[in-house]
Design a protein that fits this description.
single chain; mainly alpha; two-stranded antiparallel sheet
């Protein structure tokens, strides 16, 4: 087994070797651009790590890891178009740097490339990877649709929100881990458990993102603190405050989410005050801890050798301590 940083560097080296210029330039330059914008590379690292947890070399999983990362970035290109987002990781989004049509087409080719990478595996592994990938990709699309639907609804519940982030975010984290198990030919039960571990980790990760968006350190968060508040997103914090708050607190929150002042500072601070006063901030931290612990409970059932268990648990703990 290696360190998380080792797997990240191994993946980045492999990625750089796959990003040679291709023609037509206006199709492939946006692909190289979005793939080169950085990010945590969380999903491919998990695929490589999982492969070695189950006894195979990470090198066997590089194409599967690249597939996961290409798909993830494809979804970001199309999400940014749907959201009209001007920035991604502090840089211009693909559709802003080029145009919407280019963003759509370059995203399309990325989705096809993600599937194409499975062709480098023998038939049984190819089929298992493709089946998992197809199921996961459909759920990601369903999650995105739920997210869009929630923008115009005032009756979204916490269980509905959890289902949305499970589909939109957590399933791809879980699938990345299971892909490592598939490449390593791990037993089916072990694959299911590593998937479940990733699902709870992904839920905790997204709920923590909600929390950090409001209460993260501006110096380390990497994007504007309060962005979800400015966009009136119905996050775990918002839904919990609306569920637990007094009538007056809910009225205040609803009002703040109905306005778009020129200077958003007062709105952000007002909403954060309601999150604190209703106990939503504390409850959100509890939910992060709850899903993290559920992930670790599943991990224990895998009965891995101590050093492998420690690496996966350490990764989860590190993820939950992040400030960005």
């Amino acid at each position: 087994m290696h360190s998380i940083e080792f797997y990240r560097n191994a993946f980045l080296e492999y990625l750089s070797g796959k990003m040679a210029p291709k023609e037509p330039k206006n199709l492939y330059a946006p692909v190289s651009y979005i793939m080169g914008l950085g990010g945590k590379r969380l999903r491919p690292v998990l695929t490589l790590l999982s492969t070695e947890v189950f006894g195979a070399s990470y090198k066997q999983a590089l194409d599967a890891a690249l597939s996961v990362e290409v798909f993830h970035n494809f979804s970001l290109v199309h999400d940014d178009i749907m959201d009209g987002a001007p920035l991604r990781r502090g840089k211009e989004t693909v559709h802003k740097k080029w145009d919407v049509n280019t963003g759509i087409l370059s995203g399309d080719v990325m989705l096809i490339q993600a599937y194409q990478l499975f062709e480098n595996y023998e038939a049984e592994t190819f089929r298992a990877l493709a089946e998992l990938f197809s199921t996961t990709a459909i759920k990601v699309c369903e999650g995105q649709q739920y997210d869009v639907d929630f923008e115009t609804r005032d009756d979204v519940t916490i269980p509905e929100y959890l289902k949305m982030i499970e589909y939109k975010t957590a399933v791809l984290v879980a699938a990345a881990l299971q892909m490592g198990g598939i490449v390593a030919k791990a037993p089916r039960k072990a694959q299911e458990r590593i998937f479940e571990f990733g699902l709870h980790l992904g839920l905790a990760f997204q709920i923590q993102d909600d929390y950090l968006d409001a209460f993260g350190d501006p110096l380390t968060f990497g994007k504007q603190v309060g962005g979800d508040i400015i966009e009136n997103k119905k996050t775990y914090l918002y839904l919990t405050a609306m569920e637990q708050g007094t009538e007056e607190q809910k009225k205040t929150l609803a009002h703040l989410f109905s306005i778009q002042p020129a200077d958003a500072t007062e709105k952000i601070n007002g909403v954060k005050d309601v999150f604190l006063e209703t106990g939503a901030a504390k409850e959100t931290q509890n939910a992060i801890a709850e899903h993290t612990q559920k992930a670790f409970n599943v991990l224990a059932k895998l009965q891995l050798p101590p050093e492998k268990h420690a690496i996966l648990q350490g990764f989860g703990e590190q993820l939950m301590r992040r400030q960005a």
